[in-house]
Amino acid sequence: MMFELILLAPVVQVETLSDALDALDALSVSVEDADAHTPAEQALFGEPGMPPPKAGWERSRIVALFATEALARDAATLLQAQDFFAGCHVVAIQAVPEQDWVRLTQSQFTPVEITPEFWIVPTWHEPPAQARQVIRLDPGLAFGTGTHPTTRMCLRWIAARGTSGQSLGRVLDYGCGSGILAIGAAKFGAVAIDAVDIDEAAVESTRANAQANHVQLQTGLPDKAVGRYQTVLANILATPLRVLAPLLCAHVQPGGNLVLAGILERQADELKAAYLPYCQLQVQDEQEGWILMTAQF
Ligand SMILES: C[S@@+](CC[C@H](N)C(=O)[O-])C[C@H]1O[C@@H](n2cnc3c(N)ncnc32)[C@H](O)[C@@H]1O
């Protein structure tokens, strides 16, 4: 049985308290917004390229995990005697029931249905009986486990194209993350696939996932994208997609398709306008407030 010490602290004290808890043998320290799920909740992240709305929460809840109750109590007593603890409070010291953490984490990632025949399946699960196409993928550092609606819509587009007898041809996956779209394209008959990302970790992850799925991809940084492609897929976000408009459109061959995701419903018009010099984007799909936009060249 482990014990957690729960503290409330103003944002200016969080770093000092976290360092002190580390020094007092806390096994882990996590910090969350004490006002989460209330009207006072604050977002900490902005869109990429935009500054975050705030550097920290007004009131933070700090949870430190200790191996024994005595260690948790000693840490609380020591902290309460420090000057920097002014304005902070000990909320509770409580037992944490034993968990099988690996099993708990794994149970949160179950197979994801893209279509009744096409599934994303973690390696610790058997594929569902009706699955005809399967991507094996475990959660990792790079974005793209199939659980996000933007990824699912792109995969659904790929599957629809692949099963309708229309060739995906040469494919570019721009902003490949885990490589899930590129791997999906390979499963649905794409002939030559380039998967690129500005993040080296994503490139590495794509390489490993392609190997695990026995598919051939060329992967690398964005300068690996060369020439024109029948299919260009980019699931990024509206702001970078606007900036990338000329570059992405220059990679689509005549008669080819551009498929964009990472766009919110209310951003449809600004994306249409940004791409108008090159093509006519249409809303092709919608899931949970996100849209998929496509254009034929
Ligand atoms: C939302 S993830 C999508 C991952 C995957 N393609 C999917 O559909 O799940 C966006 C990826 O785009 C990459 N990215 C962001 N800006 C980029 C840019 N300007 N050029 C290339 N890649 C970019 C990020 O590093 C990230 O891996």
TrEMBL record:
Example GO molecular function? protein-lysine N-methyltransferase activity
**Residues annotated as signal peptide:** none
Q: Where in the cell is it found?
A: Cytoplasm
Q: Which source organism does the UniProt entry give?
A: Polaromonas naphthalenivorans (strain CJ2)
Please give an example of a GO cellular component term from this record: ribosome
Does the record's keyword annotation contain Transmembrane helix? no
Which family would the database say this protein is a member of? Belongs to the methyltransferase superfamily. PrmA family.
Output the HAMAP family linked to this UniProt entry. Answer: Methyltr_PrmA (MF_00735)
Checking Pfam families in the record gives: PrmA (PF06325)
Give the record's GO biological process terms: methylation
Classification via InterPro entries: Ribosomal_L11_MeTrfase_PrmA (IPR050078), Ribosomal_PrmA_MeTrfase (IPR004498), SAM-dependent_MTases_sf (IPR029063)
What are the EC numbers? 2.1.1.-
CDD domains per the UniProt record, alphabetical: AdoMet_MTases
What general EC class does the enzyme of this chain belong to? transferase
For this entry, the protein name equals Ribosomal protein L11 methyltransferase
Q: Which residues bind S-adenosyl-L-methionine?
A: 151, 175, 197, 235
Q: What's the stated role of this polypeptide?
A: Methylates ribosomal protein L11.
Question: Key word 4Fe-4S present in the record?
Answer: no
Alphabetized, the UniProt keywords read: Cytoplasm, Methyltransferase, Ribonucleoprotein, Ribosomal protein, S-adenosyl-L-methionine, Transferase
What catalytic activity is recorded?
Answer: L-lysyl-[protein] + 3 S-adenosyl-L-methionine = N(6),N(6),N(6)-trimethyl-L-lysyl-[protein] + 3 S-adenosyl-L-homocysteine + 3 H(+)
Q: What is the lineage of its organism?
A: Bacteria, Pseudomonadati, Pseudomonadota, Betaproteobacteria, Burkholderiales
